[in-house]
Amino acid sequence: MLEAHAMASGMGGMRAAGDLVARMEMARGMRIKEAKEYVASKLKVSLRDLTDPIVMGEVRDNLKLGLVAQMPDRPKGIEAKFRIAELLGIEINSVNRFKAKAGLSVR
Amino acid sequence: MKKEQQELLEAAKKSIISFDADKAKEIAKKGLALGITPAVIISEGFVPGITEVGDLFDRGQLFLPELILAAEAMKAGTSICEAALPKSELKEKKKVVIGTVEGDIHDIGKSIVVSFLMANGFEVYDIGRDAPIANFINKAREVNADVIGSSALLTTTMEGQKKIEEELKEAGLRKKVKTIVGGAPCSQGWAERIGADAYAENAVDAVIKIKALTGLS
Amino acid sequence: MAKILQRMGDGRMVEMTEAEVRKDIEEGTKDAAGRAKVPPLSEDEIKHISDIYTRPERIVSVEPGNEVVLSHDEGTVKINAGVCGGAGLGIDCGRMVASELYERALGADIIEYGHIDYSYKPIRPILADERILVERTLLVTTAPFLYGAMPNLGLYTQPEGPFPNPTELLNKGLIKEARESGEGMVEQAVNDIVYIASGIYEAGADAINLDTTGAFGDLDFVAALTATERLKKKYPDICIEMGMAGEFILGIHGAITYDGVRLAGLYSHQQVKLAEKAGVTIFGPVCNIVTSKSCAWNIARVITFTKACVKASKIPIHNNMGMGVGGIPLNDTPPVDAVTRASKAAVEICQLDGV
To answer: Which structural domain, as residue segments, surrounds residue B189?
Structure first.
C-alpha cells in the first residue's frame, strides 16, 4: 500500500526533495505550497524539479544532501543532515544532539 | 387514531430523546388511560424515540452517558406498559451473549453495542474482552441465548470468530443460536466466509441486525 | 449501459454503471455534509471524482508537481513485525534496517518508528531501549524521523490498567463513577505520553506522533491535547503530529472539555482548531470506511469531511489513508487501483499537505 500511495501522490523522499519539503512542514508548520516554494528557492530549482529524481539526484549530490543510491565518500545519515540543516536554515534535533554529545557545541 | 392519542405517542418518543424517565412513566400511564394498547405505546411511541437516540449517537450529536439515560427512560416507560400487557402477550426478552474474542483487549465498540442492545430491550450478557471461545459457548448454553455477538479489532484475533462457529457446531448448539460479528477488520464477506448469520457495521446496525435475527423486525 | 469495475469498502470488485458511480458519490457527500454540517462537494468536484473512479487504468496518479508529503504511521514496524495487527510482513530485519529500507527503497518522505504494541503505556518500562535504537538509527538515516504510538486509553482500564472501565460503569448506570474513572485515566495517560515523548525527543527524533487519537473517545482526545500542550511548553521546537481515530469524537465522558470546548461530537474541521491551540504541528483527520458501500461513495464522504478540515486549518493536514481509512478498502493488502484512486482524488480536491 505504501508503494501505491508513493506512486499516486508521493514526493519520493530522498529520491527527490520529499524529505526536505517534509522537514519544512515539520520544522516550521509550513503548508505544502509554502514548503515547496521555500525548498525550491533554497535549492535554486523549479517547483516541478522538486519531484524529478534526475534533477534532484544531481542537486543533492552537488549540495551534499544525501542520496538514495549509496556512493563512497558522499555524506550519509547524520552527515547529510548537518548539510540539510545548514542549507534549509532549520534546527534538526538529531544534529544538535549529535553536536552536543560529540562536544562540537555548548548547549 | 385520535389526535390526542397521536400526540401522546409523539410525547412518548420525545421523553426518550430528552432522557426523561419520569415523563416516560407519566406518559405510559396516560396512554394506557387513553385506551392505547401497551404494545402500541411501546412500538409507536418509545421505540421510535430510542431509534432516534441511536441515530443521533451515530452522528455524534448524543453521547454515551445520554444514551444510558435514554435507556433508563425507555425502561421506565416500557415497564409500565409491559405490566399492563396480558400474560399471553408478554414476550420473553431476547438474550444476547457478547464479548471481544480471546487475545483482543479492544472493547469500546463492543461496550457501545451492549448499551444500544440494553436500550432496545435485550437481555445482554457481556462476557468482557479477551474472552476465551469456551466462555461464549458456555454462557450461551447457560442462559439459553438467542444470539452470540463477537467483536474483534485485529485481523489476527478475527480467527476467534471463526472458532466460535466451529465450537458451536461441535457443541450441537449452532442451530439454536444465531451469530453476529463486528469490529474494524470485519465485513459482510467475512461473516459469510465463516458462516456467521450477520455482520454489524456499527452499534446502530447491530441492533437492526439482531432484531432481524430474533424475529423482532 | 456499460458496466465499470468498482471496489466496495471491503475490497470486493463489483460492476457498476457510470450513473451508479455518480449517484454513490452524490450520496456519499450528502451523508458527510449532513453529519458534519459542512458544504457538500460541488458539481465540478463530484465530476472529478467520477472521472477518477471510472477510468479503466489500474493505477492513477496526480500530475507532476502536485505531489505531497507522505508520512507512515508505524511504518517501519510493519516490515519486521510478525503480526502488527495483521499488517506485519514478518521480515526479520530489525527496525533500523527497516528504516533504511523505507528511506532508500520505498521513497518515504518521513520515516516512523513505533513499538510493536504501538501504544504509549507499554513503552514506559522499555523507554531506554527505544531511545538507544532511536539514537543509533538517527546516525544512519537522513529522512525526517517520527516516533509514534497511540494514547490508547483503553489500556488504562482493568484488568490491564488500574481504572474501572468507564463504558462498563456506564452500562450499569453509574455515570458519575464512569466519568471519575475516565478522568483518572486521562491523568495517567498524559503522564505516560509526556514522559515517553520527552525521552524519544531527547534521543533526537524530529517529531512525535500521537496516533489514533480519540480511539477511546473524548477522554483519549483530551489526553492527547493536554500532553501536546505540556510537550510544547517543555520543548517549543518539537514537532507533534496528531492522527485521529474517527470522523467525530465519541462521547464516552460526554462533558469533558478543552479550552472551554466540549470534545464529544466534534468533527475533523472542529478537532483541528483545538489541535492547533494545543500546539500540534501536523494534523491527520480520519474517516473510516463503510464496508457495505462502494469506494466511490466512501471517498466522496472522506473528501467532504477532509476538505472542510483543510479549509479550517492553519497547520498542515496529512489525511489518514490506509487499511479501512480514507476511502481505502479494509484489507491487509489493499488493491492498488483503490489506493491510487483515493490518493489522487483526496490530494487534488482537498489540497492536502500530505497523506
So the answer is: 95-213
